[in-house]
Amino acid sequence: MGLLRRLIRSCRTDGTAAVLGRVRRRLWHTRTCVVYRKPLKEMGMPAEYENVVFREAHAGELDWLTDQLVHMGRRRQELLERQFGPGDATVIGVTPDGSEVIFHVWLSRESLAFDLLGPHVGPKDVSTRRLWVSPAHRRRGIASKGLRFVDCVAAEKSYESICAFVEERNVPSRGLHEGLGYEDYGRIVLRSRFGRKFARVRCRGDQTSRRVTVASDVITL
Ligand SMILES: CC(C)(COP(=O)(O)OP(=O)(O)OC[C@H]1O[C@@H](n2cnc3c(N)ncnc32)[C@H](O)[C@@H]1OP(=O)(O)O)[C@@H](O)C(=O)NCCC(=O)NCCS
């Protein structure tokens, strides 16, 4: 009875489609991520661009970022707070007058994917997460330029390679990363089976995949 009441309450606050999606993800779901990796070579100074200014955001801008990055959902303030840890960087692209964020990515050491990759990554690896370009500015090379800027930021922080975890069916993001020279390094397959979750991990050089149990609240990497 308690469960039914919780479901009805969630449907009222989040909408029926969102709740059904959550139920489906718990019961039977498979999500395949391509692991991309790129060694960072000698980086020059980041280039300047006409219609966008790329820079590192700082923790003092949290309230402004929360207003700007609405696509990150209701928990965005809490999510953004975690992006300013040691060794991390939040890179944004803003319009020349500085009023609007049109590019965002988190350069992060913290991720389930890194835990799952185990010995395949080391302390000199970093990953990009929450990559996003504002829909009105897509397909104009913003992400390509932004990720080149991110390479410079990562190299400045002494990282030697950069990883990205892209859903296999995300054609735009896969094209973007492959065009920028990221190599296909492996697969992480997340599976939900009646509330239990596990991942299968296979990287370049592995003979077989590894099966790892993951926490039941994990939705994505
Ligand atoms: C993926 C995303 C960041 C791309 O940003 P963008 O600024 O439009 O990308 P670019 O203009 O730099 O495109 C670079 C390349 O990516 C690929 N690409 C980008 N959008 C594409 C699309 N809609 N369809 C097919 N390929 C696409 C192409 O190979 C493109 O090169 P081309 O224009 O020479 O063909 C953007 O679509 C986005 O924010 N998507 C939603 C969030 C998301 O999926 N993030 C990635 C999570 S891993």
What does this structure look like?
Helix content is 31%, strand content 32%. The protein has one domain: Gcn5-related N-acetyltransferase (GNAT) (Aminopeptidase, 3-Layer(aba) Sandwich). A hairpin with a 6-residue loop joins strand 8 and strand 9. With 221 residues, it is of the alpha+beta class. A 9-stranded mixed beta sheet has the order 2-3-4-5-6-1-7-8-9. Helix 1 (2-14) crosses helix 2. Residues 131-133, 138-144, 166, 170-173, 175-176, 179 line the site of coenzyme A. Coenzyme A binds at residues 131-133, 138-144, 166, 170-173, 175-176, 179.
Largest sheet: 9 strands, mixed
Number of domains: 1
Write the element-wise H/E pattern from the N-terminal end onward: HHEEHHEEHEHEHEEE
The CATH architecture term is: 3-Layer(aba) Sandwich
**Widest β-sheet, arrangement of strands:** 2-3-4-5-6-1-7-8-9
Q: Gap between N and C termini, in Å?
A: 33 Å
The whole-angstrom Rg is 19 Å
- Fraction of helical residues: 25-40%
Question: Structural class, from helix and strand content?
Answer: alpha+beta
Bound molecules: coenzyme A
Shape, per Cα inertia axes: globular
How many beta-strand runs?
A: 9
Q: Regions with pLDDT < 50 over 5+ consecutive residues?
A: none
Salient structural properties:
221 residues; alpha+beta; Aminopeptidase; nine-stranded mixed β-sheet; 9 strands; binds coenzyme A
Brief synopsis:
The chain is α+β, with helices and mostly antiparallel strands and about 220 residues long.
Describe the secondary-structure layout.
Layout: H1 2-14, H2 16-27, E1 28-39, E2 53-57, H3 62-68, H4 76-81, E3 89-94, E4 101-108, H5 112-117, E5 125-133, H6 142-156, E6 161-167, H7 171-179, E7 183-193, E8 196-203, E9 210-214
Parallel strand pairs: 5-6
Antiparallel strand pairs: 1-6, 1-7, 2-3, 3-4, 4-5, 7-8, 8-9
Helix pairs in contact: 1-2
The structure holds coenzyme A.
